[in-house]
Design a protein that fits this description.
Layout (H helix, E strand, L loop, with lengths): L1 E9 L8 E7 L6 H11 L4 E7 L2 E7 L4 E2 L3 H15 L5 E6 L2 E8 L2 E7 L4 E2 L4 H7 L5 E4 L3 E5 L3 H6 L4 H5 L5 E7 L6 E7 L4 E4 L3 H15 L3 E6 L5 E8 L2 E6 L1 E10 L1
Parallel strand pairs: 2-3, 4-6, 11-12, 13-15
Antiparallel strand pairs: 1-2, 1-18, 3-4, 4-5, 6-7, 7-8, 8-17, 9-10, 10-11, 12-13, 13-14, 15-16, 16-17
């Protein structure tokens, strides 16, 4: 069988920046082992699988190694495929996902995603995290599956060269590092998740579901301009709205074709 595939740069306004995601459109979900094989073959941080139904779409996300319960940038990419290619007359789409219904709305500046907040709680200093990062965090927290490490400044975040093998051995699936922003940005971040097959994710919507309430609690603000300082880099507008986080970003189409399964 053949299935349409798209590759987009998410949280980007020009190609070769932001976070690449593949979007595969299916009539129904295939066996998990097949979906995982496709994601491994694509070898991007995320592949989104989209299945139409009941006026909306079902959506699942796979890294090259595992299925994940939420992925922001691949949701952004999937929404662009639906609203620009599959149903260009629509202005919004609701995805049925493992994280509940996710609504994405087209706006002049891109697409606004409505995602669930990740609860962030402080934990005691973690020597293994400091050793893996090569720097001692000012504060350490967890956002569910990840450690979240507050570093002294944006320059430290940008220059970080962590021990990825040591991060993969931690008792959490990844590490988000963050600091107050430089230039126009309220905060900057990076995300390392080698245990999930993603050494460093270029731009991570899910991480900002925890970063947004983290920085809201520290600053008293509810809206932020954020930058994920990976090599490719990406910009997000983040807004805390109760128990939801709204992320605004753009996508650029890179590839359109079909895969043979």
């Amino acid at each position: 069988m053949r299935a349409p595939i798209y590759q987009l740069d998410a949280f980007a306004t020009r190609r070769f920046t932001g976070n690449p995601a593949a979007v595969v459109v299916l009539e129904q979900f295939l066996d998990d082992v097949v979906l995982q094989a496709i994601a491994a073959e694509n070898n991007l941080s995320e592949t989104a699988f989209v299945v139409p139904g009941d006026g909306g779409y079902r959506l699942r996300w796979f890294t090259p190694a595992v299925e994940v319960p939420l992925c922001g940038h691949a949701t952004l990419a999937a929404s662009a495929v639906v609203l620009e290619r599959l149903e260009s007359g629509r202005s919004s789409v609701i995805f049925d996902t493992a994280s509940g219904p996710l609504t994405v709305t087209r706006e002049a500046a891109g697409y606004r995603m409505d995602l669930p907040v990740r609860t962030v709680r402080a934990v005691e200093p973690q020597p293994a995290v400091a050793a893996a990062l090569g720097v001692t965090p000012l504060e350490t927290a967890v956002d569910g599956g990840n450690y979240l490490a507050l570093l002294p400044d944006a320059a430290t975040v940008r220059a970080l060269t962590p021990d990825l093998a040591a991060i993969a051995r931690l008792d959490r699936t990844g590490v988000v590092v963050t600091a107050a922003g430089d230039g126009p940005y309220d905060f900057v971040s990076r995300y390392f998740a080698p245990a999930k097959g993603v050494p460093e994710d270029p731009v991570t919507g899910g991480a900002h579901c925890g970063l947004t309430p983290f920085w809201a609690a520290r600053t008293g603000k509810d809206t932020f301009l954020a930058y994920q300082a990976s090599q490719r880099g990406g910009e997000l507008t983040c807004r805390l709205a109760g128990d939801r986080v709204q992320l605004l970003g753009s996508c650029v189409f890179y590839l359109e074709g079909s895969i043979e399964i």
